[in-house]
Structures are given as structure tokens and as C-alpha cells.
């Protein structure tokens, strides 16, 4: 049967067409083909009649049982975890993921990207749009409805098995017990170990001892490289308050905590995100725009392990979506919150209660950096609008709030020769997260007079 399945897969991938039934029957024998169809209830291959000349097509189980099956299952397992992390961050996402975006993130070659598209075209996840259906050079896939079951925390291998079983549709309706009985009789693809490997979930020990020669760090700091200064300040606070060595903290942008030379970056990060005792997320406008940070958050959330976060530089609870919105995240610009943050970590790690005098300088430095990058502080007393967009809404930032400028208020600013300041989209999102009443002519004149700007320019 392996030869037949390999032949069907090869024909489809090389000619972009399924082979004719008469060709397959002539090559392997009609009686053998019919026996396979009958005994396996169309689980592996199916006769289709798109025209007067029917073809044989693989089903999902057939594809993963070819000699390419292990690689296909690796791709499917990685993609399943990718969607799980994306779902945990934003279950209501409506936009589809493009194949080039997925390939870049999962580091897939063009051939691997096409193979993943082919396996997804079996409607594994229900939502699939093929741009070039024959070549699979481009495709997109969104988070399907009903994905919550797959995204629940648990063994990723079992989740993959549920995907496969869910997509097995026999010729005649059967209940789940009958379906499982059929599956039990099938030659099982040896995919558990490969999937464990691709997800970094292999055995912790083997005959020669631990698989990994380097222990996972105790603390993992998820952050954007744009916030390197804050990440460094956070590490200084952790070392001063908790006595942690930098070698026990993974922070990929900060010296002393970077990944080791020649490490398999994706594999090691996946393992460390899963195994670290403490996962800290530095949540800023930049990090919440980072695909990698969101994926790290989703992966950690899906594992039901300890996750703590700090809002900084204007980010707030309004910017978190999905299950993440239920997290109790503290604010790095608030000194009292930072003291609580340090104390909570000490309890979680079963360390002695830190003395504020030993880390106060580092705490204040982190607080200053958090405030310095806050758009509400940066643009205080300024007229702003989105960079590169003409004739769009204008706002005025005043006393920690953002106000929409009505046209007559904008004209007051023009008359006072107050130019608008262009802001980046992520900063504007933070500003609009603190919207207050709109400003008309009288309010705008009163504010400009208070600021000493009316009539001075």
C-alpha cells in the first residue's frame, strides 16, 4: 500500500493533477486497489469523478502515511502550535495568515511551504484559501471557528491526533466509537516521536542522561529589541532585588543573558519558554506589535505555566486581547507596582523577601525609562496626527489624556501657528487608548492660554 500512496502523492506534487483511476489500476492491479478502498472505508484514498474520467485522490490519512508523512506531520504539528499561540493571544482575529508570513516565522523552505499548503488543503482546519491552487506557491489560512478545543492547554501530540481524527470522514456515517475502531485497525504512522522532537517535547532523559546539556534559565524575559534599554534595566532590577545571576535569565537582547553561540535559536527558545520557572513579558507598544513576542506569550499561556507582565511606555490593558486580557499586569511607570512585582516574584521563587534599599536605585531607573517612552508623556501639550496620512483626524494631548480636535479647534491651532506632530501608528494607538472629550474652539483657546501658547507664535 505504501507504494500506491507514494505514487498518488508524487503525481499530485509533480504534475499538480491526481492520476486517473485507470492508470493506477493498471499499474498496481484493479483488485488490490478495490480491496484497499473497501477495507479502509476511503480513509486513505478516494475515487473521485470530476469528469467522465475518474481519478484517485489521497485523503488526509493517506497523505500522512506516505514516505513523506513524517515531514508532513512535522509541518502540521508546528502549524497547529503556531495557530494555538495566535488563538491564545487573539481568538477573535479575522485576518488570515499569509503563507509567506507563516513560512518566515516557521523558517520553511519554498518546498516545505507548498507541502504545508497541500496538507492544509485537505481542510484540516476548515479555513483555507488557495491563491495558486495547483502549485501551492501562495495560500492563506485563518484561525477557524471552533478552534478553542485544539487551543486548550495539553499535550500537543494529542492535539494533533484530535485534528487527524476529526478530519477522518468515512463513506458512511458512524459514531465516534466506530470511527476509533476503524482508526485502530489502520497502520499507524510513527509520528509521535517526530512531533515531540519538532515541538521540543522529547524525553527528558535517555540512556546517556539528559538530552539537553544546558539547563533552562529560571527566568525568561519576552520583549521587543526596540525596548533593549528597558530590558537591561529590568535585568538590573532582578539581579539587585532577587540576587539572580544574569546567566539564569534569558533576555536575548542583553549581554550576559543572550543565547549561546551556535544555538538552534527557534528550538532553544521554544524549549526555554516552556521550561522556565518564571516568564516575564515586557509589554510596550513595540512588543505588542511584534509577532515573536505575541507568539511567545501565546505559547506560554497555552502551557498553563506562570506568566507575569509589566506594562510600560503607554501600553495598557486596553491593548491586550483574548485570554491575555484577563492577566493582572502591573505598570512599570508606577513605583508601588514595581515593589509589588518584586515581592511577588520573590514569593513565587521561594526567595527571601527583598529589602527595598538594596534595589531602589534600579527600580527608579526602570520607572524613569518606562515613563520616558510613554507617548502620553512624550506628546503632552502637542497637536498630533498619524504620520504620512493627510486630512486625517487630529488630536491634542493634555494632562495625560488625548482629545479629538474638532475642525474649528484645529483652526485655532493653525491660527496660533502650532504645527501638528506626526506620530507612529503604534504610538497613536496608545494615545487613542486614553481618549477624553473632544475639543471645540473655546476649550482649545483656554488650554492654549493655560500653556502660554496662545498668541506667542
TrEMBL record:
<dbReference type="Pfam" id="PF13676">
    <property type="entry name" value="TIR_2"/>
</dbReference>
<dbReference type="InterPro" id="IPR035897">
    <property type="entry name" value="Toll_tir_struct_dom_sf"/>
</dbReference>
<protein>
    <recommendedName>
        <fullName>TIR domain-containing protein</fullName>
    </recommendedName>
</protein>
<dbReference type="GO" id="GO:0007165">
    <property type="term" value="P:signal transduction"/>
</dbReference>
<dbReference type="InterPro" id="IPR000157">
    <property type="entry name" value="TIR_dom"/>
</dbReference>
<feature type="domain" description="TIR">
    <location>
        <begin position="215"/>
        <end position="349"/>
    </location>
</feature>
Amino acid at each position: 500500500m505504501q507504494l500506491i500512496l507514494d505514487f498518488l502523492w508524487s503525481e499530485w506534487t509533480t504534475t499538480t493533477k491526481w492520476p486517473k483511476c485507470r492508470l493506477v489500476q493498471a499499474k498496481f492491479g484493479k483488485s488490490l486497489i478495490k480491496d484497499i478502498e473497501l477495507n479502509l472505508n476511503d480513509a486513505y484514498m478516494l475515487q473521485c469523478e470530476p469528469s467522465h474520467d475518474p481519478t484517485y485522490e489521497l485523503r488526509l490519512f493517506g497523505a500522512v502515511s506516505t514516505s513523506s508523512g513524517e515531514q508532513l506531520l512535522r509541518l502540521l504539528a508546528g502549524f497547529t502550535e503556531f495557530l494555538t499561540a495566535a488563538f491564545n493571544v487573539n481568538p477573535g482575529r479575522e485576518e488570515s495568515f499569509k503563507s509567506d508570513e507563516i513560512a518566515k516565522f516557521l523558517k520553511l523552505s519554498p518546498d516545505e511551504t507548498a507541502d504545508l499548503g497541500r496538507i492544509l488543503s485537505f481542510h484540516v482546519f476548515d479555513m483555507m484559501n488557495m491563491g495558486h491552487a495547483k502549485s501551492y506557491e501562495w495560500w492563506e489560512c485563518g484561525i477557524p471557528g471552533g478552534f478553542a478545543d485544539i487551543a486548550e492547554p495539553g499535550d500537543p501530540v494529542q492535539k494533533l491526533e484530535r485534528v487527524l481524527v476529526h478530519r477522518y470522514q468515512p463513506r458512511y456515517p458512524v459514531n465516534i466509537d466506530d470511527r476509533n475502531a476503524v482508526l485502530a485497525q489502520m497502520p499507524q504512522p510513527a509520528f509521535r516521536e517526530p512531533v515531540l522532537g519538532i515541538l521540543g517535547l522529547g524525553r527528558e532523559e535517555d540512556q546517556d542522561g539528559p538530552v539537553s546539556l544546558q539547563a533552562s534559565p529560571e527566568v525568561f524575559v519576552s520583549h521587543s529589541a526596540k525596548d533593549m534599554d528597558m530590558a537591561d534595566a529590568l535585568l538590573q532590577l532582578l539581579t539587585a532585588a532577587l540576587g539572580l545571576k544574569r546567566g539564569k535569565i534569558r533576555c536575548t537582547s542583553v549581554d550576559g543573558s543572550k543565547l549561546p553561540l551556535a544555538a538552534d535559536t527557534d528550538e532553544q527558545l521554544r524549549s526555554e519558554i516552556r521550561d522556565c520557572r518564571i516568564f516575564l513579558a515586557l509589554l510596550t507598544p513595540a512588543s505588542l506589535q511584534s509577532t515573536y513576542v505575541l507568539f511567545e506569550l501565546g505559547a506560554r499561556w497555552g502551557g498553563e505555566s506562570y506568566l507575569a507582565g509589566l506594562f510600560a511606555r503607554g501600553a495598557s490593558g486596553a491593548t491586550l486581547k483574548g485570554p491575555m486580557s484577563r492577566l493582572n499586569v502591573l505598570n512599570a511607570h508606577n513605583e508601588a507596582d514595581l515593589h509589588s512585582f518584586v515581592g511577588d516574584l520573590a514569593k513565587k521563587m521561594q526567595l527571601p523577601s527583598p529589602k527595598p534599599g538594596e534595589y531602589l536605585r534600579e527600580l527608579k531607573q526602570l520607572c524613569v525609562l518606562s515613563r520616558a517612552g510613554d507617548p502620553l508623556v512624550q506628546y503632552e501639550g502637542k497637536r498630533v496626527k498619524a504620520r504620512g496620512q493627510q486630512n486625517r483626524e487630529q488630536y491634542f494631548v493634555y494632562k495625560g489624556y488625548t482629545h479629538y480636535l474638532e475642525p474649528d479647534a484645529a483652526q485655532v491651532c493653525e491660527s496660533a501657528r502650532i504645527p501638528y506632530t506626526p506620530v507612529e501608528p503604534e504610538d497613536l494607538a496608545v494615545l487613542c487608548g486614553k481618549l477624553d472629550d473632544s475639543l471645540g474652539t473655546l476649550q482649545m483657546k483656554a488650554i492654549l492660554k493655560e500653556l502660554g501658547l496662545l498668541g506667542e507664535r
